[in-house]
Amino acid sequence: MTKLSLTEENYLKAIYFIGGTSQLVNTNAIAERLNTKAATVTDMLRKLKQKDLIEYQPYKGTRLKSEGKIKAIAILRKHRLWETFLVEKLAFGWEEVHEIAEQLEHIQSTELTERLSAFLGFPEFDPHGDPIPSKEGIFPKRDNITLDRVKPDSAVMVQGVKDSSTEFLNYIAKLGIQLGDQIAVKSVEEFDRSLLVEHKNQQYRLSALAAANLYIKEL
Amino acid sequence: MTKLSLTEENYLKAIYFIGGTSQLVNTNAIAERLNTKAATVTDMLRKLKQKDLIEYQPYKGTRLKSEGKIKAIAILRKHRLWETFLVEKLAFGWEEVHEIAEQLEHIQSTELTERLSAFLGFPEFDPHGDPIPSKEGIFPKRDNITLDRVKPDSAVMVQGVKDSSTEFLNYIAKLGIQLGDQIAVKSVEEFDRSLLVEHKNQQYRLSALAAANLYIKEL
DNA sequence: ATAAAAATTTAGGCAAATCTAAAAATGATT
DNA sequence: AATCATTTTTAGATTTGCCTAAATTTTTAT
């Protein structure tokens, strides 16, 4: 129930993204993700432990405790709701929204979060296709098939991206791939498992890596 | 162009609210508004002066310089746009929104601000009836205020009608409303934004639609 | 198994924003 | 014009989040 500082929230979020809700997370991994130094992370881990938000044994790593998980998931919920708002209501491109959502996710008001969710029609997935946890912290189910799992000659619809780095988003933006698009897989190259696909009446080749980062639904 | 800290922004805003764009503002007045101590304010004033955002002579008070004015007005613009969003899109009551808007006003993204404004239909007044400065920092003229933009407990004079259909003119004639009449707004109903007004020693209720079509001047 | 490498923590400091208490400047009053 | 009250600033600390450099622990490799 204690109100966390913006920095504390970002640490919880980082631990959550690296290790999820159960895996041990290294100090250096956190430092790298937050562009800070290991020594700084150690300081903060001691503080978060004292607030009972994380488990932490010096030299052994850290993981979220239940209070920490709740906080981290609540921030994620806000982040994805705001991204949905930015894309669906303000017509931002889905590559542009992350930075702004990073700020908006720290706004403190559960009332606001819930009204925003209602305004957006209680969305379960954000514009990247990532699941939006409910206010109780439950994630909606989804078929997690990626494009690289698909047999040749199948038609699929793009449901989301796994890798939401700017690089990847830019890449697929360049190809013109958007949520809801249909893609037909023509063939798969034995050698490097790259795919020959047909998309918007064009044929081109997608690397295995790119395909592995596109969530799809088979049609 | 320099990015200001949240605290610096709040100081500029406070100076703006107390002294507007030209009046000298006392250290104590700022301390009171920000619930802080005079000594703290002195420190910050020295810092803001160094950044050339304010004029400041020890013991003499402070006032905004042009850069400071621009920043303060930009924050005000964001605050009022967000309030409009919260009330009009998320159906908050207009008493509840201030605290949330205080947080949202610090989100850094001009792109976001401008798209929000567009999404709201380029509003010129917020739900309290306060003017929303343009992105160039220009305040809209108050001439075109309609009765629905007015705060409760304000007295106004009828200056004209927006809708000049026979139906509307007949309606206000039936109520006995004429140009130059004084109307006092007693309260605004949350539910449908209808107004309880006092006019010619009578109290009655006006719909939000009727109020939106009456141009008024605040007294 | 032991030394080298890597990861992590400790120690000591710095900047921002805050505070209290004391000193200084201003202004108001006789 | 001298004093007293008020306002403001200065001085010295504190907290938070961050840093570098040195010390320590863990892991890896000979």
Key terms:
homodimer, 219 residues, alpha+beta, two-stranded antiparallel ribbon, 8 helices, 7 strands, DNA-binding
Overview of the structural elements:
Two copies of one chain form a homodimer. With 219 residues, chain A is of the alpha+beta class. The longest helix of chain A has 23 residues, at 66-88. In chain A, helix 1 (6-19) crosses helix 4 and helix 2 packs across helix 3. In chain A, the strands form two sheets. The first copy, chain A, has a five-stranded antiparallel β-sheet with strand order 6-5-4-3-7. A two-stranded antiparallel ribbon of chain A has the order 1-2. Chain A has helices spanning 6-19, 27-33, 38-50, 66-88, 97-104, 110-119, 166-175, 208-212; strands spanning 54-57, 61-64, 155-161, 182-188, 195-199, 202-206, 214-218. The mean pLDDT of chain A is 93. In chain A, strand 1 (54-57) and strand 2 (61-64) form a beta hairpin. The structure holds a DNA duplex (30 and 30 nucleotides).
Question: What is shown here, in short?
Answer:
By secondary structure, chain A is α+β, with helices and mostly antiparallel strands.
The percentage helix of chain A is 40-55%
Q: Can you count the helices of chain A?
A: 8
**Helix/strand/pairing category of chain A:** alpha+beta
Low-pLDDT parts of chain A are none
- Widest beta sheet: strand line-up of chain A: 6-5-4-3-7
In quaternary terms, these chains amount to homodimer
Largest sheet of chain A: 5 strands, antiparallel
Shape of chain A: globular
